[in-house]
Specification:
Blueprint lengths: L1 E4 L8 H17 L3 H7 L4 H8 L7 H10 L4 H19 L12 H11 L2 E6 L10 H10 L8 H14 L10 E7 H5 L5 H14 L5 E6 L13 E5 L8 E5 L4 E4 L2 H17 L3 H14 L1
Parallel strand pairs: 2-3, 3-4
Antiparallel strand pairs: 1-7, 2-5, 5-6, 6-7
Amino acid sequence: MTRTSPLGNRTSTVLGRRLGGELLRLRDAAGKTQRQAGDAINASNSKIVKMEQGWVPMRDPDIRALCVFYDVADHEASRLLDLARLDRERRRARGWWQHSPHPGTLSEYLALEDAANRVRTWQLSLVPGLFQTAEYARSLAVSEGAGVWEDPDDIERLVEIRMRRQNRLHEERPLHVYALVWEAALRQLVGGADTMRAQLEHLLEVAKLPHVRLQVLPFRAGGHPCIPGSFSIISFAEAEAVDVVHADTIASTVWVENAGESVTYSKFFERTARLSLAQRDSVLLIDAIRQEI
């Protein structure tokens, strides 16, 4: 499923999508239609759609009724009920990101990143958010202020959020990050020479972390598969969880939560990675650009 959302107006959780996918599988195996499933729980067809796509928290009575209707074994029904309970708890959780000055798509992305075990990100013009210094992030927010970030307090909260995200890189079980960055992002003087020099020095330090892989796509690589735009692929520990792709445009956010489309993004990422410099050579290029500034 691909969706475009200007405000991130629905809650999407990894557990919810997993549970919805299992209910869809069970309905297909039972040979039932969505309308028949809706009738079994006295609900509309649209509610079944929302349940199977993980858009809404699921009530225990609905799950029990569907399991009876699909002739699901008791132990399987119990597992689904446990999964639904965990999903409801996650939806109720108010993570630190809820204080974001722009709580729509940003909060939804941060909630997914918080649950993830790996992120692959391709960036055309910016240093990845997980690797940004505070001054770089602040300079970006100020430069974007004509559109969204005009209140100084909002800007500082945004910077604080971007810094707090980076705690995932230093936890006992850290987030694994594989970042591909176009050379242009390293040469763009965001915030001026001093800010950019410090940012590149920080990148050199981040690249030393064992769970970070950083590659630069040099200008000389020419055309490449990911020219259309930046995106991030968020992966989760659960075997059944589908990768989620996130991409921002000027006016909206695109989410891809479909296994086939997610694989396509992964293939484009891998093809671009093969055109990029190895990490050692990427570090040398970053250091050379730092010295040029």
